[in-house]
Amino acid sequence: MIDKTKTDESDTVPCNVCLKEIPLSAARSEESETYVLHFCGLHCYDKWRSQEESSEETASPK
Ligand SMILES: [Zn+2]
Description:
The protein is an alpha+beta fold. It is built from one helix and four strands, in the order E-E-E-E-H. A hairpin with a 4-residue loop joins strand 3 and strand 4 (about 35-40).
């Protein structure tokens, strides 16, 4: 059992792309089997998605 004294609104997480602190309740999250990522909005989420896809499809260096 976790005794949580904080309210949910006071919990913040860093955006995985721009590292901005965002309220957990407002964050978009992407869960996989090995990690949970948080994003401040669709802009950062799309940016991360495109990076993930391009890294999978191409092996060329940046
Ligand atoms: Zn962001």
